[in-house]
Amino acid sequence: MRRLVRVASLAALAALVLLGGCDKLQFSDAEKKTIASLALNTLPALEADTTNQYADVPAAAALGSTLFFDVGMSRDGTVSCSTCHKIDRQFQDDLPQAVGVGRTNRRTMPLAGVARDPWFFWDGRRDSLWAQALTPLENPLEQAGNRAAFAHYIRNRFGERYERIFGPLPDLSAVPANASPLGTDAEKAAWNAMPASEQDDVNRVFANIGKAIAAFERSIEPPQTRFDRFAIDLATGSKPQGDAAFSPEEILGLKLFIGKASCVTCHNGPRFTDNSFHNTGVPPVKDLPPDRGRVDAVTQVEADPFNCFGKFRDGDASACRELRFMVKDGQQLVRAYKTPSLRGAATRAPYMHAGQFSSLDEVVAHYSKAPAAVEGVSDVHPLDLSGRERAALVAFLKTLSE
User: Fold this and answer.
1) Measuring CA to CA, which residue among 248, 358, 178 is closest to residue 26?
2) For residues 80 and 392, what is the distance between their CA atoms, to the nearest angstrom?
3) pLDDT band at 5 (very low <50, low <70, confident <90, very high)
4) Global pTM?
5) What is the pLDDT of residue 24?
6) How many whole angstroms separate alpha carbon 99 and alpha carbon 93?
7) Where in the cell is it found (predicted)?
8) Dihedral of the alpha carbons of 109, 298, 302, 114, in degrees to the nearest 10
9) Which of 26, 337, 349, 383 has the fewest CB atoms below 10 angstroms from its CB?
10) 335 with 279: CB under 8 angstroms?
């Protein structure tokens, strides 16, 4: 027994030497403050969405949940929101690019805490959760439907539930079965032939579909992880116990994350994201359409009839600060993509906006080397991390998954 204890003690000592000594296991007051700011218990209460008066109505969330999982909300009756946002996979799909009716050019994003974002999609081409929810419904590669068909579907299948939440449905008897300002030439022609009043009626029903789905998605929040338990113990002066106790390698990774590697510059706050857009030199994927990120999304969000300035917003325009003061041009927008939350990241490979990297090891290696961007200017600089440091960072990132 004594021999086993001695061997274990020597192994622990060797680990400390390998990781740079006992000083590596201590945190300064400044480091403790930064670590505490990342803990989930500092996440503030979810603010009301004044652009969606139904955002916190339970009946709206219940209808939104039904629609989220309903394959009838697609052109061919085979695709729903949950096709790509799988409930047992952090509401994502583990694919490099999402596949609905067809294959898209972007990675499916997880949904935990999504209601707290100011911008939506990898490029921020929508400015509210409910406007975001509408976009895949009409995307020909995702659910591939059209506005008129969705309005008829709601009336025929969910009419009573809809009216209990949103009030009376409009008269859709003269509305074509298939019509939309997007979609096929026939659908566009049918839409353009409709009176403006009928277009508004359909758009209102369509907007309310998005508001119901958003009400459901607001309920999806990130769970507590090993990191949170460690951070809380550290902040309160308690000795971490059980799975909250970090290994020397995980502690080194955390120190690198908030220090030398500067990961916390963009991955900050309790959701580990600054909610902003950055060019980090991630290469394009061969054979995918050109993708320039945020720089092309600016015109899209401005043109969206369901944006915060549009007539389908609830409340007044005081909620539109993000859209009003949006940065519209500049080199910093070229190939810039949203900073994703790192919570749960260890179990949802592949990574980046088009699944360019298959593992966290590849992600950390990319940031260590920081290759130049193919277009625009990368925000990151070479970190020149050693193999031991890269492994420690990956070990820490795994503590953010439960």
Assistant:
1) 248
2) 39
3) very low
4) 0.93
5) 54
6) 9
7) Periplasm
8) 20
9) 26
10) yes
The three-state (H, E, C) secondary structure of the chain, written as one string: CHHHHHHHHHHHHHHHHHCCCHHHHCCCHHHHHHHHHHCHHHCCCCCCCCCCCCCCCHHHHHHHHHHHCCCCCCCCCCCCHHHHCEHHHCCECCCCCCECCCECCCCCCCCCCHHHCCCECCCCCECCHHHHHHHHHHCCCCCCCCHHHHHHHHHHHHHHHHHHHHCCCCCCCCCCCCCCCCCCHHHHHHHHCCCHHHHHHHHHHHHHHHHHHHHHHCCCCCCCCHHHHHHHHHHHCCCCCHHHCCCHHHHHHHHHHHCCCCHHHCCCCCCCCCCCEECCCCCCCCCCCCCCEHHHHHHHHHHCCCCCCCCCCCCCHHHHHHHHCCCCCCHHHCCEEECCCCCCHHHCCCECCCCCECCHHHHHHHHHHCCCCCCCCCCCCCCCCCHHHHHHHHHHHHHHCC
Cα(370)–Cα(375) distance, integer angstroms: 14
340: left (phi over 0), alpha (psi -120 to 50) or beta: beta
25, 61, 87, 332, 376 from 110: Cα distances, Å: 33, 18, 10, 25, 27
Q: Are 186 and 178 in contact (CB under 8 A)?
A: yes
Whether residue 224 is predicted with pLDDT greater than 90 in this model: the reply is yes
Which residue did the predictor score with more confidence, 242 or 353?
A: 353
Q: Are 281 and 373 in contact (CB under 8 A)?
A: yes
Say which residue the tokens 């419904």 belong to: 137
CB 288 within 8 A of CB 97: yes
Tens digit of each residue's pLDDT (9 = 90 or more) over 276-324: 999 999 999 999 999 999 999 999 999 999 999 999 999 999 999 999 9
Contact criterion met (CB below 8 Å) for 64 and 161? no
pLDDT in tens, 191-208: 999 999 999 999 999 999
CA-to-CA dists, residue 400 to 144, 156, 190, 226, 231, angstroms:
35, 44, 50, 7, 11
Q: Given this model, what pLDDT does residue 20 score? A: 42
Cα separation, 72 vs 78, in Å, equals 7
Give the pair of three-digit tokens for residue 305: 């009839």
71 contacts 77 by C-beta, under 8 angstroms: yes
Give the per-residue pLDDT at 380.
96
Please give the single-letter amino acid code of residue 255.
K
